[in-house]
Fold this protein.
Amino acid sequence: MKVLLICPYLDDPQIKRNDFLPSAALLSLAAVLRTEGHEPVLLDLNSKRTHQQAEPTRYCHERIVDAIQRERPGFVGISFLFSGFMKTAMEYARTVKATDPSLQIMTGGIHATTYPEEILSLCHDFDYIALGEGEPQMVEMANRIARGDLGNLNEIKSFAFRDENGKVRINRDREWINYEDLPMQAWDMVDFTEFEMDLSNYSNFKGHDIKNVVPVISERGCPFKCTFCDMYLVQGRKLRRRTPERFVDELEYLVKEKGQRFFTFMDDNLTVDNKHILGICNEILRRGLDIQFTTAGGLGMNSLKTEVIDAMVAAGMTSALLAPEHGSEYIRNTVIKKGLKRDTIYKVVEDLKKHRVSLAGNWIMGFPEDTNETLQETMDMIDELKLDRNWVGALIPFPGTPVFDQCVRDNLFIDGIDVGNLWQEPVRAHQEGCVIKPYNMSLDDLFAWRRKFIDVRFKHMRQL
């Protein structure tokens, strides 16, 4: 059976788009569907072609209608990880049903995992929700739809649906995927010209002809419990990895078959296990892969030893994202619960600066406990570390996190919040402004710090 897999394009005038990366979720779903004999049809709309349209929203809906009429799929998946895509996903589902009312639609991601009851009760265009990881549920439903017998849907773990009486049923039992058993993502289905970007400002020390940033990942899950992070809702707490050999098999395929040489390692915990990352670096070097890579997830600084840094640079790391997150020891370790000492941060940066590596830092401002003094500590650390780029984001309290519950309890949302309507009007990530008011700061001071942190983004950029 053909299965149409859709990744949305977020047409948001407040966001300048320059991040056209193939959807890892779609490629993984396509790979597992093929192992079961299905024929995936990819419609990844987060692309350069979409961005170049005069009316991107209209173009996306026309592409969906055309794909349904041309391919005649028997099942549809709309994949979106973050809550900011909810409205767009709802509009896509409405277009799918208007084109072919018989088509059943599954969705998933952090947002759908957080609000399955509300989405299925109030948005009838969606038929099913995969809670957490979605590969087993997608395959199971494709198999059942293909044979024309849905059977007992209560049997499917991590799954939500409406029964014959319209009542929402949610099976929250989790069965985590053995990540090593998943097939390689369906890279053969990707037209990389659709995702080309202007990378003239990227670290390209080897002088490759790079037009794409290719997202790859060697693991799922995070054992840490930072109070602002909701990724555990999808990936869980248990760290599950591919072997270095299998991960580098994917890199080698992309180099030799697709001509790609610039990668972004998306792992949230790439360096937490030195044996794992050293195994990857050694395998890249053993095979003689001439690649460059950056890190999208903030590298775990507690475990980023000197020998690991040396190995990563030797294997092709030309830029790295670090995640100190706050200059205040109190905010970083008592509030966030990061467990990262100041001396460790400075030692890691010192070791990295011995190499030709562009460095960026992830920082967060605006925690409920922040004050003028704690934010000054962040500014001081930024000026002392002198990283090339500093991304200081305003705290976004996501549902399912301790900091969200705290902000709701203490009424800290600046514009108020309708908790009952978050399923369709979510708190949007990557905002320029601030969402909550700290206990002991005025709004004037808070917004003044926001402007200061925006201005410091490229203050310490080096010529490497």
Remarks:
- The CA atoms of residues 313 and 391 lie 23 Å apart.
